[in-house]
Amino acid sequence: MNVPQTIVTTLGVVALGFGVLGAGYAANQAATHNPAYTSSIQVRDQDPEEREEHHEERGEAAHLASQAKIDLTMAISAALAQVPGTALNAALDDENGNLAYKVEVKTITNEIKDVKVDAGNGNVLHVDAADEHEGDEDK
């Protein structure tokens, strides 16, 4: 093999390596930002005009509330049935396309748990430490 052909081959291998590493990184990032659950109500992306209309007229919270099948009180009850304690905070949220209530519960052992409750059927979808994903929102 001559020198120019060796250089081209080496550059090709390096480029392929970066491509594989990039794909692995992208898959890892997608896994860390997508929830490990699927709710019974999927929030569809709105077109820009429709999104603007909702923000002006009713706000996103009202738009999400109109899709929920259970209310906040029912979501808190479901969360406390799964994780006994005191509800500190609760809100309806679009969790990457999943309509779910996020209920923060202070357990009897003084841990703070983040309980996701399906806004469609009241099933508990996920429980984790409240601070486990706090840093993800800043990214």
Could you explain how this protein is built, in words?
This protein is of the alpha+beta class and 139 residues long. It folds into two domains: 1-33; 38-138, Nuclear Transport Factor 2, Chain: A, CATH 3.10.450. 44% of the residues lie in helices and 24% in strands. It has four helices and four strands; from the N terminus they run H-H-H-H-E-E-E-E. It has helices at residues 3-33, 48-57, 59-67, 72-82, and strands at residues 85-95, 98-107, 112-118, 124-129. The chain has a four-stranded antiparallel β-sheet with strand order 1-2-3-4. The N and C termini lie far apart (47 Å).
Write a concise keyword list for the protein shown above.
139 residues; alpha+beta; Nuclear Transport Factor 2, Chain: A; 2 domains; 4-stranded antiparallel beta sheet; elongated; disordered C terminus
Approximately what portion of the residues adopt beta-strand conformation?
A: 15-25%
Helix-strand category: alpha+beta
Number of domains: 2
CATH-derived topology of the largest domain: Nuclear Transport Factor 2, Chain: A
CATH architecture classification of the largest domain: Roll
Order of helices and strands: HHHHEEEE
Average per-residue pLDDT, rounded, comes to 79
Task: Based on Cα principal axes, name the global outline.
Answer: elongated
Instruction: Kindly provide the name of the CATH class of the largest domain.
Output: Alpha Beta
Provide the fold topology.
Blueprint: H1 3-33, H2 48-57, H3 59-67, H4 72-82, E1 85-95, E2 98-107, E3 112-118, E4 124-129
Antiparallel strand pairs: 1-2, 2-3, 3-4
Helix pairs in contact: 2-3
